[in-house]
Specification:
Length: 265
C-alpha cells in the first residue's frame, strides 16, 4: 500500500464530493431531486451494462461461453433493478411533474447516448440517431458501437464456427446497417433448440439472449406506461409524439430468429 492509498478514505475513493455535488436542481420543487437522481442512477447502470456487454461480446468471440454467461447473468440482474426503479418514479404525480417540467428545456432521455450505445451493442442499429450527438464523448462512443459487430453478430459467428450454415452475408457485412432476419439462421437456432443435449451451451446462450431482450422490452414498456400516467399524451420534451413514439420503440427487435423459432418448435 502506498502512502497515498493509506490516506485515501471512502469519500476519496468514490469521489463522493463530485458525485453528490452533481444533483443540481433548477427549481425549488420537492420532486425535482427524485427526477434527477432516478436519471443519474439509470445512467450509471447503463454504464455498467455497456461495460459488461462489451465483455460478454468479447468472450463469445473468444469461444469462452462460460465467461459470457456470467456476464449476461449480471446484466439481467441490472436490468431487473432498472425495471424496479420505475416503481419509485411512478410515485411522482402529473401535478408534481408539471411543477418543474418547463425547466427541463428540450432535454430528454431521447438524448441518452449511453442508452443508444446499449441498443447498438445489442444490435438495434440506427445511424440516424448519431445526428443528435455531435460532441464527445457521445459521438465517438456511438460511432464505434455502430461500426462494430453487435452481441448478436458475434453469436452468429460462433454458430458458423460450430458448423451451422449461417449465410456469408450475415457473417461479413456493413455492421452500421440493421440486421435483417434470415431463414437459415432461424433453421440453425431451431436445430439447437430441438437437440438441446447436444448443443447445450448454444441453447443456454440463446436463452440468455432472449432473457436480455425480454427485460429490455419490460424496461421500455414500463417507461412508456410511467410516461403515460405522468404526462398523458403530451408531446415529449425531446420533440417526439411522446407515448406513441415510445410504443413504436417497442418494435426495435434485437434477436429476431430466437423469437420466430418459437412459433415453429
Ligand atoms: C417523468 C419521467 C419521464 C418522462 C415524462 C419521460 C418521457 C419521455 C418521452 C416523452 C420520450 C420520447 C422522446 C421525447 O420526445 O422526449 C422519452 C424517451 C426516453 N426516455 Fe424518458 N421519460 C421519463 C423518465 C425517464 C427515465 C427515468 C429514464 C432513464 C434513463 C428515461 C430514459 C429515456 C430514454 C432512454 C428515451 C429514449 C427512448 C428511445 O428512443 O427508444 N426516461 N422519455
Amino acid at each position: 500500500m502506498s502512502e497515498t492509498d493509506r490516506d485515501m478514505d471512502y469519500g476519496d475513493y468514490l469521489q463522493l464530493t463530485a458525485l453528490l455535488g452533481a444533483q443540481a436542481t433548477r427549481t425549488a420543487e420537492h420532486d425535482e431531486l427524485l427526477f434527477v437522481v432516478i436519471h443519474q442512477v439509470a445512467e450509471l447502470w447503463l454504464k455498467l451494462s455497456i461495460h459488461e456487454i462489451r465483455s460478454g461480446r468479447a468472450s463469445i468471440a473468444a469461444d469462452e461461453l462460460r465467461h459470457a454467461f456470467k456476464t449476461l447473468s449480471r446484466v439481467a440482474r441490472i436490468q431487473a433493478h432498472m425495471i424496479g426503479a420505475w416503481e419509485i418514479l411512478a410515485t411522482m404525480t402529473p401535478t408534481d411533474y408539471a411543477n418543474f417540467r418547463s425547466s427541463l428545456g428540450s432535454s430528454s432521455g431521447f438524448q441518452s447516448f449511453q442508452y443508444r450505445e446499449l441498443e447498438f451493442l445489442l444490435g438495434a442499429k440506427d445511424g440516424r440517431m448519431l445526428d443528435l450527438h455531435q460532441t464527445e464523448p457521445a459521438r465517438g462512443a456511438l460511432e464505434a458501437a455502430l461500426r462494430a459487430p453487435s452481441l448478436y453478430d458475434e453469436a452468429l459467428a460462433l454458430l458458423a464456427r460450430r458448423g451451422f450454415a449461417v449465410p456469408a452475408d450475415r457473417l461479413e457485412r456493413d455492421w452500421t446497417q440493421p440486421y435483417v432476419p434470415s431463414p437459415e439462421v432461424e433453421a440453425a437456432w431451431l436445430a439447437i433448440y430441438r437437440d438441446t443435449d447436444r448443443y447445450w451451451d448454444l441453447y443456454e446462450l440463446g436463452e440468455k439472449l432472449v432473457d436480455l431482450e425480454y427485460r429490455l422490452q419490460q424496461w421500455r414498456f414500463s417507461h412508456m406506461k410511467t410516461v403515460e400516467r405522468i404526462i398523458g399524451f403530451k408531446r415529449g420534451t425531446g420533440g417526439s409524439d411522446g407515448v406513441s413514439y415510445l410504443v413504436k420503440a417497442l418494435d426495435r427487435k434485437l434477436f429476431p430468429e430466437l423469437l420466430s423459432l418459437r412459433t415453429t418448435i
